[in-house]
Design goal:
With 398 residues, this protein is α/β, with parallel strands linked by helices. Helix content is 34%, strand content 25%. It is built from 10 helices and 24 strands. Strands 5-2-1-9-19 form a 5-stranded parallel β-sheet. Strand 1, helix 1 and strand 2 form a beta-alpha-beta unit. It is globular. The two termini are 27 Å apart.
């Protein structure tokens, strides 16, 4: 019997879930491509920056992960440059690889708006691990330098977070919470950390449940984070941030979480895209022109009852499961299944020991919600780690 050659591009949440599900069929021969040798758990980035987790705890090695299956999954650390859809070839700098079915799960990246002067030069994004690690190190060194200054007076650390969405809010809250605990535990005299959250909308977390927004706003203010709503960054220098109202703020570091765009590969692909450059897919998650090519995760936009479904890790995993069902149905000449994906809930981490959440319509907050978020993250990490551990044993035993 001929093998089903399936290529998955992207080792994010959607890509790994696709591989896990497809690998159950031993007739599937799967290749996973990613330019990085690791899966980065972006939902844990706030803990990484605040030094509650190290990079080993927020990554999974893709070589050992793929080796943990029954010899039908291969990982190739190669960046995909283009795809020849007519001849069914994935093109890298090293080779051209044939496929019967293709899953594009390349995710998104921070969008550095070209109209914001100095943004790319002086701001940090945190969707890429190396950028998050660099900011984490700089943040820690700044805390250390302030401790070195300790005495009757010291200069504050000024951090600007641009973007009042989930990432911006969680990062701002966690840094403020971590710093308060750091200073309290060590009894340092110097305790000056100024965090400003710049938000273009009327309130933070636009489009999210009103009660959660109110709880989040209250928590941020308790952490002494200054929120500037209805404000946009127009210029960034090495030491300052200028807003559209004309105000200029001092800045040691700036995190930009104000927008995302499809990853570079998407721009090269001869596929139908929407006005924002994301791949257009149908109700079965297939691309418009090619029945055997699927797009999932942040590189596409999906709708439920004419409303955009938020691009979260949970959404990406749900898309992966629908995608796998439809690939299996194509293989077995069965009807395809239309997706009915919607957000199953939201967990917002707002500093150590506190979160706000709405799960299946039920709202709760405080330590219970925080514990729930940590449990979800640990269960996910454990599942991948078990697979990776199995692959590691196989490699060294073989």
């Amino acid at each position: 019997m001929n093998k089903n050659k399936i290529i998955v591009i992207g080792g994010g949440y959607g890509g790994l879930r696709t591989v896990e599900k497809l690998a159950k069929n031993t007739q599937n021969e799967i290749i996973l491509f990613d330019k990085n040798p690791y899966h980065f758990m972006q939902t844990d980035v706030y803990d990484l920056i605040a030094n509650e987790e190290d990079f080993a705890q927020v990554t999974v090695d893709l070589f050992t992960f793929c080796s943990g299956f029954d010899n039908n999954v291969t990982f190739l650390k190669q960046e995909v440059n283009n795809i020849d859809f007519v001849n069914k070839k994935v093109i890298t700098q090293i080779n051209r690889y044939s496929y019967d079915y293709l899953v594009i799960a390349v995710g998104s990246r921070t969008r550095y708006m070209p109209n914001i002067i100095g943004l790319r030069e002086y701001a940090y994004g945190v969707k890429a691990l190396h950028r998050a690690m660099y900011f984490k190190q700089k943040f820690e060194m700044s805390l250390f330098n302030r401790v070195q200054e300790s005495g009757t007076s010291c200069s504050p650390i000024n951090i600007v977070v641009a973007g009042g969405g989930l990432s911006g809010v969680e990062i701002a809250a966690q840094m403020a919470s971590f710093s308060k605990e750091f200073y309290r535990k060590n009894n340092f005299i110097c305790r000056k950390l100024n965090i400003v959250l710049v938000n273009a909308s009327e309130h933070v977390l636009r489009g999210i449940d009103k009660v959660l927004v109110e709880k989040t706003d209250k928590r941020l203010k308790e952490l002494e984070i200054v929120i500037k709503n209805n404000s946009k960054v127009v210029e960034v220098t090495k030491e300052s941030v200028k807003l559209d109202c004309g105000e200029t703020m001092p800045m040691d570091f700036m995190i930009f979480a104000g927008g995302i765009e499809p990853n570079a590969l998407v721009y090269n692909l001869l596929l139908d895209k929407n006005e924002k450059g994301y791949i257009v897919t149908n109700n079965y998650l297939q691309t418009e022109k090619y029945y055997n090519v699927f797009a999932i995760g942040d590189c596409t936009t999906i709708y439920n009852n004419n409303e955009i479904v938020a691009p979260t890790a949970d959404t990406a995993e749900q898309m992966a499961e629908v995608c796998v069902k439809n690939i299996n149905n194509l293989i077995n000449s069965k009807p395809l299944v239309a997706h009915k994906i919607k957000s199953r809930g939201i967990l917002i981490a707002l500093g150590s020991g506190y979160a706000a959440s709405k799960i299946f319509g039920i709202r709760f907050s405080g330590y219970l919600a925080y514990g729930m978020k940590k449990l979800v993250e640990r269960v996910y990490a454990k599942r991948l780690d078990n697979r990776s551990h199995k692959g590691c044993k196989k490699i060294f035993c073989d």
